[in-house]
Amino acid sequence: MAELRIPIIGEFKGKKAFDQAGKATSTLDKSVKRLGSTLAGVFGAQQLLKFAKNAAKAFIEDEAAATRLAQSVKNLGLAFETPRIEEFISQLSRASGVTDDQLRPSMQKLLQTTGSVAKSTELLSQALDISRGSGVDFETVVGDLSAAYVGQTRGLRKYSLGLSQTELKTMSFSDVQEKLTKQFSGANAAYLETYAGKMQVLSTAAGEAQETIGKGLVDSLSLLAGEGNTIQPLADSMQDFATYVSDAIYGVAVLIDKMKAIPGMDFLTRNQKTIRENLGTPGIVFRALDALNKLGAGAKAVPGMGGYPSSALGGTYIDPNDAARKAAEAAAAKRAKELAALQNKALASQKAQNALAKAALKQNKLNKIFDLEQIQIYAALQGKLSNEDRTRVELQLALLDENAKAVDYLSRKLAESQGQTSALSTFLRTLPDAKNPFESWGEYLKAIELEAKRIGALTFNAPGGILEYTMQSLGIPSLADGQKVTAQPGYSDAQNELLDAFNASVDANNKLINVQVILDGGVVAGAITETQVNNSLSGSFNQLNRSGSRGAVAIL
Amino acid sequence: MPTELKGASQLRKALKQFSPDLDKEAREEMVGFLKPLVKKARGFLPSNAEAPSGFVKHDVKTATFPMYDAATARRGVGYKLTPTKPNRQGWIQTVSIHNKTAAGAIVETAGRKSGITGNFSPRFEGSIAGRAKMAGRAMFKAYEQDQGKAKAGVIKALEKAAAKFNARGI
User: Across the interface, do B134 and A12 touch by the CB < 8 Å criterion?
Assistant: First the structure.
């Protein structure tokens, strides 16, 4: 039930506000619709412009990253491998959904570490699997693999390979790689089967497409810029360019229109393929058209970085860079072997050092057994010593053991203890004499003695017998029962007191006490009824409340 | 029907924010008018002995029907000085008195619609005062008997606070 409420003061504000809100909403709705229809074209143009800007920006960033990688590869003496690396990164990016922006720096790092393109590509692919399988981000995995390649396996602990740190240290990189492959192989492929993976691939593809479009835009603008491929002349002549393009488009339209007017031209354009097939030797017109076609296609197919020929050239093709590649791989393999050798050497050295330390420790223990001084100290420690002495002996032992940490601690403890002892000694020396607690006892005992003497000297005069007074002894005449005695002048105090007592007893005897008992009729009747009913219920003879079939009611 | 005092809730807000002393003063003044009204309304609620025995709170609860407890019902009668949320018609109650408990509301309104008949409503002592939806045995009766004095006092207190607030020129 809703609570009851009386409004003392009220205010009407809701409905008006609702109406206002409704009106405002409908007005806004209409305005937005009008605005939308007006600005639809502008908005589309703005979106297009925004996309073009983003595309150009993405391409510029991508190109910068590619340049960094190319420079790095060049510095490693592998400039001829740049197109192959770019191709690999592009393929891996498309297949894995990892952007080339992420892959390039990773590839650079691996190349710098291994010096081998083959090894780097292998590790990059493996890093993808490890990253997907372990959930660790891709860059970190690449960093860990690079470190592991040169023997720093500390970072591999996070992948939970089931190996102790010591095992990781003693394992060669190939063993580690094998272990990682065993654990994470196929993780990337599995991830790409998921919706998230597919979405990532699509997203990356969209990003790449944006970069491609951006490249097209920038190239187009550079081409239009004229001499030197710089943007400044283009900016200067942008207005002229716009006018020029406009006029040119109009001119092309006019040209087509005019060409249509040439007799037979329409037939030629529609049937050029058939004519070419029927004519044994192409005419001058078609040769010219073919030349233009090749020029356009050639201009579009700008060679990539280094112009590396594709494998589609066939098996008979001999790559001029093969020798250099083989040499670089051999150098990298040599470097890997050297690294492995160094690692083994370091491990052997570490083992030798450990063995030596163990032997030294053993020797030290043996020495301790026969060191008399130490034996004495241990014996002293077995006995009962004060805390300070114990600390001193322990310090001596620590000095013998050359345990600097213990020496430092115990010397401080001893100094502290000594300081406390001297402070205690000073305190005790300067302590004032204690007061004699029994000093005042002499005077007290003397006072007791004097009091005892005084009590002993006291004398008591005991009465001759017990005083007994009776009416007769006091000379009061005997009276009949219930009669009071009147005091006579000349009675002593004792006589008067006796008289008073006697008269009081006479008064008490003569007094009549009335006791009146008032009973409540209802209570008495109730008690009687209760008793009768209970008697009836308990089997006693009673005729009350027994009539009818209802029986009796017990009173509790 | 409530008396509409436009801007009362805004005034209370403004007072609370900018002149807490005036707000306190106005509140105390309003409480001075409402407290006697509430006290009177509480007095009209029957004691446990006066209420129908089956309706009074007892150990064995026979149904989900609200049980009456005089102390609880009396505690449920009170006043409120803060605005309520707007109702479906758009009204807010800036200052109000209420009878919150279900049992208290039953005592207040039993027989209001169907008449004092049957076995329940005739057992309540005290007549219903007021008219239509403003009729009742306790709170409505007290409000009816007050003859609008509390309302006038509250309005006056708010107007006084508003005048003082405006005079300060905040």
Answer: no
Give contacts of B105 with chain A, Cβ < 8 Å: 1, 3-4
Is the CB of residue B117 less than 8 Å from the CB of residue B111? yes
Any B CB within 8 A of A19 CB: no
Which DSSP string do the residues of A159-194 spell out, in sequence order? G--S--HHHHHHS-HHHHHHHHHHHHTTHHHHHHHS
B92 and A16: CB-CB below 8 Å?
Answer: no
Q: CA-CA distance, B93 to B82, in Å (whole number)?
A: 8
Nearest-CA neighbor of A143 among A180, A109, A179? A109
Residue of B nearest to A15 (CA): B90
pTM of the predicted structure, to 2 decimals:
0.33
Residue A226 has pLDDT above 80, yes or no: no
d(C-alpha A277, C-alpha B126), whole Å: 118
Are A387 and A357 in contact, with CB atoms under 8 Å apart?
A: no
Under an 8 A CB cutoff, do B93 and A13 touch?
no
Interface contact A21, partner B, CB < 8 A: no
Question: Å from B123 to nearest chain A CA?
Answer: 21
What's the Cα-to-Cα distance from A510 to each of A137, A274, A480, A489, A498, rounded to whole Å? 122, 170, 13, 26, 19
Distance CA A141, CA A54 (A): 30
CA A59 to chain centroid: 38
- Can you read off the two tokens belonging to residue A302? 């700008």
Residues 5-44 of B with CB under 8 A from A: 5-9, 34
Greater confidence (A462 vs A9) lies with A9
- Residue spans of beta strands (DSSP E) within A59-181: none
Count CB atoms within 10 A of the CB of residue A393. Answer: 19
Three-state SS at A409 = helix
pLDDT digits (tens, 9 = 90+) for A80-131: 888 888 888 888 887 777 888 888 888 888 888 888 888 888 888 888 888 8
Q: Please answer yes or no on whether A10 and B34 come within 8 Å at the CB atom.
A: no
Helix axes A322-370, A173-184, angle to 10 degrees: 100
- Contact (CB<8Å) B154/A8: yes
Residue A307: the pLDDT is: 40
Phi-psi region of A181 (alpha: psi -120 to 50; beta: other; left: phi over 0): alpha
